[in-house]
Amino acid sequence: MKVAKLANWKTWVAMAAGMAIAGGVAVAQDMSEDSIAERIKPAGQVRMAGESSAAQSAGSSEPRSGEEVYNQACSACHAGGVLGAPKKGNAGDWEERIAKGMDVLLDHSINGFNAMPPRGGCGACSDEEIEAAVEHMIAGL
After folding, report:
1. Is residue 87 within 8 Å of residue 79, measured between CB atoms?
2. Which of 40, 50, 51, 124 sits a CA distance of 20 to 30 A from 60?
3. How far is CA 32 from CA 36, 46, 59, in A?
4. Which candidate, 34, 105, 48, 110, places its Cα nearest to that of 73?
5. Any residues with CB less than 8 A from the CB of 131 and at least 6 apart, and which?
6. CA distance linking residue 20 with residue 25, whole number of Å
7. 69-125, pLDDT tens digit by residue?
8. Helix crossing, 91-99 with 102-111: angle to 10°?
């Protein structure tokens, strides 16, 4: 019986300490309207085909460079050859693919092929940005 009382006492002390710490953290946060709005803003937006992206609606009509798109989306697989992805700058990996022509490369990049998801997982990338990323990966081969 004494063991149960001791465990119960420790539980209450731990809960009280946790609430005191949590209360201190909440007070330490900036509670201004702007700060709260920043913390609860949505992580992303749903965009239907044909709608402009957030970057375009914010006034940026310039597409990202191939290097930017590669670094943001493509490098996760193409830097190390994940699941057979051709590595950037490796002529042996790209030889057969390039022989099929740029139209096939773009079709596979935009619509997906084998383990590669459509647009390489970059749903916000335009066709032009995908093409620039492909050209960046095969540059100099």
Report:
1. yes
2. 40
3. 6, 28, 28
4. 110
5. 66, 106, 109
6. 9
7. 999 999 899 999 999 999 998 999 999 999 999 999 999 999 999 999 999 889 889
8. 100
